[in-house]
Task: inverse folding
């Protein structure tokens, strides 16, 4: 086993992202002791039962005290409150990070609470599933995925940034650095707006009384099934994402609506060339994602043939 990158790591919040971090850190021998805390007794009990974390604590402060790295793994809207609570016990020289899906609002909410002698290095792993909770994590979640490191400002300590990058690389991820505002715009395009569209599409199908429930389910392979998977994502997490990445999401949704109207018009006027050219361009984007190793080109997303 290699030398740990941090002697003590604290994970605050014990859901999909934190539990995957724990298993990935254990797999790579990247941390000495890992402490953990979650808000509810039920989650803490479950974590103890399944051996998630070396020590599960009954308060965030107890988990964070003495840690060399504290990672906030709670919904974006809860980050500020947790930071305020743990600030008094943070070890001088420690690194505080988070995994929130939005970066500017997390920096705004967390930074004012932190003492001057800790390093604040926000991060966002671009990996997830539609599952949540302490039992949903697995060691391979971050393998060959990206983790974007977003140093809180230009004064952030380079060694602290590099050390955190080394941890994420040890957990299997590729790392990149980005400015918070740019991160939020990129994620609005690649993740936040697509989630909202999936939520909407599933809502539309639910509203459409002419299509019976059984037909929606029976014929869901026709594209709709992938929307339902995305739309099953955690409601608290996604509520917080939209409330905290308002401007970028609204900007992208504005553009989306314009494009949708253009396609709607092409359908109405029978402009097949426009539709063909558009779909050709979008197919190239899909090919680019596969070439970049970010998805499989197996038919049906690698699910394999299943009998209806
Ligand atoms: P999750 O599975 O729902 O877990 C969230 C955890 O946070 C739970 O353990 C919950 O405790 C705890 N929590 C909630 N509010 C808290 C509070 N006020 N104090 C202490 N603990 C609290 O969520 P997740 O998917 O791991 O997401 C965590 C973070 O990662 C979010 O900020 C999200 O934006 C980000 N992220 C998610 C994904 C994804 O695809 N899921 C991908 C990248 C980044 P209880 O169980 O006791 O309620």
Result:
């Amino acid at each position: 086993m290699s030398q740990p990158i941090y002697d003590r790591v604290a994970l605050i919040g014990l859901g999909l992202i934190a539990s995957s971090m724990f298993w990935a850190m254990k797999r790579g021998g990247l941390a000495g002791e890992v402490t953990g805390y979650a808000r509810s007794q039920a989650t803490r009990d479950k974590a103890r039962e399944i051996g998630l974390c070396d020590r599960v604590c009954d308060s965030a402060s107890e988990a964070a005290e003495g840690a060399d790295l504290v990672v906030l793994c709670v919904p974006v809207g809860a980050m500020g409150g947790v930071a305020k609570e743990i600030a008094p016990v943070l070890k001088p020289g420690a690194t505080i990070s988070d995994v929130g899906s939005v970066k500017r609002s997390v920096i705004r909410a967390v930074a004012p609470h932190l003492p001057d002698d800790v390093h604040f290095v926000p991060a966002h792993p671009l990996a997830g599933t539609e599952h949540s909770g302490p039992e949903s994590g697995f060691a391979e979640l971050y393998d060959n995925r990206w983790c974007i490191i977003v140093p809180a400002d230009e004064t952030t300590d380079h060694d602290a940034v590099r050390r955190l990058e080394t941890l994420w690389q040890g957990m299997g991820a590729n790392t990149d650095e980005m400015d918070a505002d740019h991160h939020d715009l990129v994620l609005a395009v690649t993740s936040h707006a697509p989630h909202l569209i999936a939520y909407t599409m599933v809502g539309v199908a639910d509203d459409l009384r002419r299509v019976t429930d059984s037909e929606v389910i029976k014929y869901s392979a026709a594209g709709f099934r992938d929307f339902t998977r995305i739309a099953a994502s955690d409601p608290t997490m996604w509520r917080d994402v939209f409330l905290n990445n308002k401007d970028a999401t609204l900007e992208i949704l504005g553009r989306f609506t314009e494009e949708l109207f253009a396609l709607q018009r092409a359908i109405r006027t029978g402009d097949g060339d426009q539709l063909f050219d558009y779909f050709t361009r979008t197919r190239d984007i899909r090919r680019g994602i596969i070439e970049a190793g970010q998805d499989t080109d197996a038919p049906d997303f690698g699910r394999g043939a299943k009998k209806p």
Notes: The domain at 6-178 is CATH 3.40.50.720 (Rossmann fold). The chain has two domains: 6-178, 182-293. The first helix runs from residue 16 to 28.
